[in-house]
Amino acid sequence: KRKEKSEAHLYTFLKVARPEDLHQQIGKTEHFDLVDHEKVKSFRIQKQTSFQAFKDQIAQEWGVPRECQRFWLWAKRQNSTYRPSRPLQPAEEALSVVQIKDAASNQGKPQTAFLNLLLEVNYDANKVPRPPPAIGKGDIILFFKLYDPVAETLSYLGHLLVNSSSRMMDVQAQVCQMAGYGINEDILMYEEIKFEPSVMCEAVDKKNTLRVCQLEDGDIICIQRNTEGLHPTPTYPTVPDFLEYIRNRQVVHFRKLEKPKDEDVVLELSKQHTYDQICEKLAKELGVMDPTCLRLTMHNVYSHMPKPAPFKFQSVGCLSDMLMSDILYYEILDLPLPELEQLKTLKVAFHNSKTELVSEHSIRLPKESCVEDVLRQLEQKLKEAPPPGENKDGEADNKAPAAAPVITGELRMLEVCYHRIYKVFQPQEKIESIDDQYWTLRIEEIPAEEKKLAATDRVINVYHFTQDPNHTTVVHNFGEPFFLRVSQNETLAEVKTRIQNKLQVPQDLFSKWKFAFCSLGRPEYLEESDIVSSKFAQSRKDWGGQWEHYLGLDHDDKFVKRPASNQNNRFNYEKPVKIWN
Questions:
Q1: Pick from 133, 101, 127: which is nearest to 114 by CA?
Q2: What is the pLDDT of residues 393-452, one digit of tens each?
Q3: Which of 1, 109, 239, 247 is packed most tightly, with the most Cβ within 10 A?
Q4: Residue 132: which of 63, 70, 222, 48 has the closest Cα?
Q5: Are 11 and 45 in contact (CB under 8 A)?
């Protein structure tokens, strides 16, 4: 290897495509242009080797005599296609390989470490190589592909030298013979022009001359049988239809939104498929009667999870606008998406007086509804909840949740995030702007003591927290936050008793709790005789006061769990682990 590296400057590489490569690749791995040069035979040749010596090597390796070989140079066209442009002349074949390579580069060919060549081989009736026909004035080389609309396959037929003054109908019999058709077969001809950024494949008028059709060396003609009157009609009846399909086909992996890691349905679609076409094909695969009952969500390539917001009904033009990768997520809705989008769905959690989670509910209302309507519907849902130990049909069910307590007072809805209360919603507040994707919406009964506040009473925030052992100024909140009424002269000892009764914490655990006034995350620990209300003198007296001021309950979190997301796993991300050196 060391020797090869030291002598690398003495060698160059020639990549030679031959008819066998075109037959093997076209219609299988390649559909556009003629060949992938990365998959053809590469020769490592000393730069000063004569091209005639290289032809001898080809004859020995592939069994094609020197006199039966004709090599063509390739050229990249302005439309980004890569086609054979002209044959090597006898004078050029007398040069060394590096001279041919350098000359090709000077003629505008791409500067690469390789010289790409096409070996033209012509065979007689017995498949024996024969000398290539002479290229006369005005002769051009054309390459032919065959498309079968019924089988939806594309294959390589071969090449022909045709004079540019000829008409395509003059060579039709020869082309039909190459395809195995009768010489009078009614065939259609198309010129494959380009495929980037979009497919261009135009019909060729067989009555016009090649010169009028602007055909030149290296052009590709695709032929097919006329499908007019064919039943059933092929999916892609013409060459342009098929090439458009090949150019835009896309395999999409659909996953259920609630199971974003599990593979579910795989469909081959077109990047040009509309939103409706995608839903129709997916609905057919899933056995869903109404495609509008499907809702799709884009994949986030950074989190490898669904994006927060799903696609709105018919909000995207085509599949290519919906993909960041080859993954989409779907939901099967209980009503058509256009109807659902006229409604607002909120996921709310109902908590009891001990701040414990009782049940979770999805509340669906018209967008113009108010928070008061949400509370009223939840109260109705709680009344309709089955008795303990029974399912909705009244049958015994050991797994059925306990029935919710009877609601006797007024309800309120809170906005909770990271175990802190950030907002109390007003009953007349519109629900359209409420976001339940990032925040938890908690509904609870307003305690009677908070409804009858004296002039000197105030309602404070109470949060659970632990201190970071390595950073005494850093606190971590956990558990369920709540509000608490405190009187003007109420001591910490009195407040502690009410908190213990509210949360029903056993004495052996509660005795280990410490209490602190927290402002901007900094705890100031309180003594039993401290007046709690005085610490909140700068806060408002209404619900919550200033959100950054709260009474902190410092104790161990005995029930550390990964947070269970109620947002269909859209934001259920694990926090990164810090590694300190």
A1: 101
A2: 555 444 444 444 567 788 999 999 989 999 999 999 999 888 877 789 999 999 988 888
A3: 239
A4: 70
A5: yes
Per-residue tokens: 337? 């998406």
Predicted local confidence at residue 384, as pLDDT: 78
Rounded Cα gap, residues 217 and 118, in angstroms: 13
C-alpha span between 185 and 172 (Å, rounded): 9
pLDDT in tens, 337-377: 999 988 988 999 999 989 999 999 989 999 899 999 999 99
Longest dimension (CA), the chain: 113
Q: Which residue has the tokens 């079968």?
A: 148
Please give the structure tokens belonging to residue 219.
């052009």
Give, for 298, the enclosing helix (H) or strand (E).
strand 294-300
Q: Count H helices and E strands in the chain, helices first.
A: 14, 27
What are the angstrom distances between the C-alpha of 321 and each of 54, 283, 324, 332, 467?
50, 20, 8, 22, 47
Tokens representing residue 171 in the block: 């060579």
Question: Looking at residue 134, what DSSP letter applies?
Answer: P
Kindly report the CA angle at 176 between 172 and 177, in degrees rounded to 5? 120
Cβ-count burial 27-37 (b if 16+ within 10 Å, e if not): beebbbbbbeb
Place of tokens 């209360």: 421
